[in-house]
Amino acid sequence: MAPPTTITARVSRVVDGDTIRVFLPNTEKDESLRILALDTEESNAGGSKPVTPWGKKAKLRAEAFFSPDDEVELVFPSSEDCEVCLKKYRGNYGRLLVFVMKDGVDFQETMIREGYSPYFMKYGNAQWEDLHKKYQIAEREAQIETLGVWDQIGVNGSEIRNYAALGTWWKLRAEIIDRYRAARQSTENLFNTRLDYDTLISLAEEEKEATVFTELRSIKKVGARSALILIGSEEQPFSLFLPDIESDEGQGIVRLLETRYIFGDAAHPRRSYAYVHGTLSLYHDKPQIVVRHTDQVIDEALSSK
Fold first, then answer.
1. Which residues partner with 76 through β-bridges?
2. Is the overall model pTM greater than 0.85, yes or no?
3. Does position 263 have pLDDT exceeding 80, yes or no?
4. 50 alpha-carbon distance from chain centroid
5. Domains of the chain
């Protein structure tokens, strides 16, 4: 496997324990990073999770690690050209998805080992096996010593997040993503709504058939009898269109999606990811697949190479 693509950036400021802003090469405006493998507790109000004392400590730890104008190395989860990575590897809100190193020190490993974050694989394990193993070991060592997030009473005064349950759900999702990564090597015409978004738009313009691997986050009724299943990304909006949710077949599709796939949480874990086969089309310049039958939505890709 080729080495990961890396670029050097200059730190602007720390936003949170798992988010910093940097100046990319030859740019005057800083931009936000969503640091992979980390999910620290919140230090700033306004998100979906509560602010916690340990979240504030995580931000302080990040500020001790990063200073304004520090040079850092951004490591992408890919070996593709830098320009491709800069466009392709972005989260739901456009933040770059990267690992971050400074002076040869792995920030992710540091935060996991010191208990500021679990090894966060909700959106997939680290693609590079050496990083994956390193983060697994770091988390195990923090758990052995009950550091930080693994001692909720000690750091927060009460259990704010059930990391045992969350970790089990994240592991399920990560295993599904690992199987997708393997399937991609043996399956033709298989695409990812986040990584292949521009390709999907081109295929939709020509109304081509394809199989799409996607996260299914929410259902939204539109019109009297139809609905959209959304993936939740503002940066790469994609949807499944259900033309008739009142018919017997339509009701079956909705029940399947809601009970087996639609997002969920640690208390109500679901697969979240599915392979959807159908004809791509554009709706308001955004790609979609029309789903009329339950057999269009499946758990595993069908090998075709």
1. none
2. yes
3. no
4. 20
5. 6-161 (2.40.50.90), 188-298 (2.40.50.140)
